[in-house]
Amino acid sequence: MMPNFAINADIIYMMNKTLISIVGPTAIGKTALSIKLAQHFNTEILSADSRQFFKEMQIGTAAPTPEELAAAKHHFIHHKSIKDHYNVGAFEKDAINTLDTLFKTHDIVIMVGGSGLYVDAVNKGLDDFPEVASSIRERLNADLKTKGLTHLQEQLELLDTVAYSTIAIDNPHRVIRALEICIGTGKPYSSFLKKGNVKRSFKTITVGLTAERETIYNRINKRVDIMMQEGLLDEVKSLVPFKDLNALNTVGYKELFNYLNDEWSLDFAISEIKKNTRRFAKRQLTWFKKNEGTLWFDYKAPIDEVIKKLNTLY
Question: Positions of the region Interaction with substrate tRNA (predicted)?
Fold first, then answer.
């Protein structure tokens, strides 16, 4: 049988394509670096930040500004509504399809985002989990309403410390998902995480930005203050009718909902946003540092230094 040279040529062609994936904690400067790299390589950017998908959430998600969006073409920014059902599986499919299209005209594409699960979905593929009884999720959702998220978090910490340390622990949906696997299978959720990665038709180079913890925390605190100055409270007020939607159960929004519900003072709500964002940044670093192949740079590293290193790898 004659070899299929057309298929082989396509495989070889795609293997010469490179995705540069930029990761790191929130407020570290990933957006700025992605734009500089996109301009240098004359290419486009995919966002893998699950909070920036929703068009109603602009200020509180630190989405790219109109000027930043104009500086380089972006994909997956404000392309969905908070009313839409959109999950990591749908994002993986959409992102791979977009990459297939972009790689027809670009040798390099940039991806940027702090949502570890969404980044890994593109780079490594999603994990396969066994089916569990729906009654388990129903019971956990009931526990969430009657006993609160803290109760579920404590339960997860007992059953799977690895998952407790790495998932978005402030997201009830993620906590319940991990717990239902633990309870339904009798095994830790983390034991089902993919041991081997799917084979993508492109090469991925992961660039990580980091800084001393105090610097990261200071940048987070400053960013929250800027968000408030830019009108975050008004943005949250406009979303009160939808506050029970999963998309809005996120840092920066849920705390201000508590203020608007007369449960907290405004100063306390702002301090809680800062605290919860710092906790989120810590979990981000834990997640991203699992990837031993990441090229880590100080957040102040000159762009020429990053480009020089990338030029030796792609």
Answer: 49-52
Query: For residue 188, is pLDDT > 50?
Result: yes
How many Cα neighbours within 13 Å face the side chain of 233? 13
Enter the pTM of the model.
0.83
Question: What tokens does 151 get?
Answer: 């109760």
> 5-126+195-311 in CATH: which number?
3.40.50.300
Crossing angle of helices 266-288 and 213-229, in 10° steps, is 140
Instruction: Give the span between the Cα atoms of 198 and 247, in whole angstroms.
Output: 28
* Alpha helices by DSSP H, the chain: 5-15, 30-40, 66-71, 88-102, 116-123, 134-147, 149-159, 161-166, 172-185, 213-229, 232-238, 254-260, 266-288, 303-311
Residue ranges for the known binding site for substrate are: 26-31
Tell me the residue type at 27: A
Query: Domain boundaries in the chain?
Result: 5-126+195-311, 134-192
> Which among 114, 97, 96, 105 has a CA at the least distance from the CA of 53?
114
pLDDT digits (tens, 9 = 90+) for 78-91: 999 999 988 888 99
Contact 24, 30 (CB under 8 A): yes
The DSSP call for residue 111 is E
- The amino acid present at 306, given as its one-letter code, is V
The annotation places the binding site for ATP at 24-31
- Report whether pLDDT(12) > 80: no
Q: Distance between CA 90 and CA 75 in Å, rounded?
A: 14
Main-chain phi, psi angles of 108, to 5 degrees: -130, 140
Annotation: binding site: 24-31
Q: Domain 134-192: which CATH class?
A: mainly alpha
